[in-house]
């Protein structure tokens, strides 16, 4: 079995207006992983997802889902995919149960009430199964979208901004569900504006901007390669300038002269942290506290986008 469940090759898309949404995109997503696709508004995230899901025509290039070409083998490819869109896309006058039964039938799956019951219980929807969707809260409607996407037992689940505008409790419940799904072998691809979610959940992260993939890497490798660290020294007494002992290092004096900050790259053979601390000691500066700070994924994301402007 192919390790990659999604295989995008040299994909480009130009709309009739002349706008190039995607430019020579190559992307491979592995079976069973949680993959986060990050990018600003208009970066190409929605176009890429829509092409993979068969909602937008391929321009140039090829897209395979579970080994099936999304153009030449559309039905087989689409059966592999469950999609949870940003917008509500269900019949609000139908019941929760009938919505799932109908969605399962659309994809040619035989009835399986036990499976649908399991989905509804995992999403805390079982008690609402006979309720019409219009009577549900916004959070419950979002849960129904997820249940509907899972009704036909897809191998790949796309979550497009799944927690935008939902409360903290629902966000937590949804991510617990994502982890459960991953343990059953479902591949999860999510887009999110909450970069802390990608940092916590994703195995690998892709960053897209202006229709091009800037990078794809494992989360920790990305933070290690592109992240930076800071040595933050809290001083017992404020200083107005750096003493001679510290002149060879690039140190920044903080507000009111009460902190010294040293930026360093943890990947370099020598980061000079020990030398900085020794020089501070020789200078006679008394410290009240020493801290280190690691770049967050959000800081790396922002810096990458600034480099491409």
UniProtKB/TrEMBL annotation:
One of its GO terms (molecular function) is ATP hydrolysis activity. It comes from the Bacteria. It holds the Pfam family ABC_tran. The keyword NAD does not apply. Keywords: ATP-binding, Nucleotide-binding, Transport. Coiled coil: none annotated. Residues 6-235 form the ABC transporter domain. InterPro entries: AAA+_ATPase, ABC_transporter-like_ATP-bd, ABC_transporter-like_CS, ABC_transporter_ATP-binding, P-loop_NTPase. This is Multidrug ABC transporter ATPase. It comes from Methylophaga lonarensis MPL.
């Amino acid at each position: 079995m192919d390790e990659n469940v999604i295989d995008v090759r040299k994909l480009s898309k130009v709309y009739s207006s002349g706008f190039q949404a995607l430019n020579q995109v190559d992307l491979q997503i592995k079976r069973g992983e949680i993959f986060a696709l990050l990018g600003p508004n208009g970066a190409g995230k929605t176009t890429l997802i829509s092409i993979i899901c068969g909602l937008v025509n391929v321009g140039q290039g090829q897209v395979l889902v579970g080994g099936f070409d999304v153009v030449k083998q559309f039905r087989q490819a689409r059966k592999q995919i469950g999609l949870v869109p940003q917008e509500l896309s269900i019949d609000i006058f139908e019941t929760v149960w009938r919505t799932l039964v109908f969605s399962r039938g659309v994809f040619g799956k035989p009835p399986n009430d036990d499976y649908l019951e399991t989905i509804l219980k995992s999403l805390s929807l079982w008690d609402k199964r006979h309720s019409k969707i219009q009577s549900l809260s916004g959070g419950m409607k979002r849960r129904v979208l997820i249940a509907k996407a899972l009704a036909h037992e897809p191998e790949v689940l796309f979550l497009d901004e799944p927690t935008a505008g939902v409360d903290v409790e629902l966000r937590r419940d949804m991510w617990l569900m994502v982890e459960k799904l991953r343990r059953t072998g479902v591949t999860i691809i999510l887009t999110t504006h909450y970069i802390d979610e990608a940092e916590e959940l994703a195995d690998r992260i892709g960053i897209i901007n202006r229709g091009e993939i800037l990078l794809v890497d494992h989360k920790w490798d990305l933070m290690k390669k592109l992240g930076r660290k800071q040595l933050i020294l809290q001083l017992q007494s404020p200083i107005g300038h750096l003493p001679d002992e510290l002149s060879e290092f690039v140190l920044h004096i903080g507000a009111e002269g009460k902190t010294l900050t040293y930026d360093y790259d943890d990947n370099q053979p020598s980061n000079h942290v020990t030398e900085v601390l020794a020089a501070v000691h020789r200078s006679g500066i008394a410290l009240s506290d020493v801290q280190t700070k690691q770049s967050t994924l959000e800081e790396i994301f922002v810096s990458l986008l600034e480099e491409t402007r």
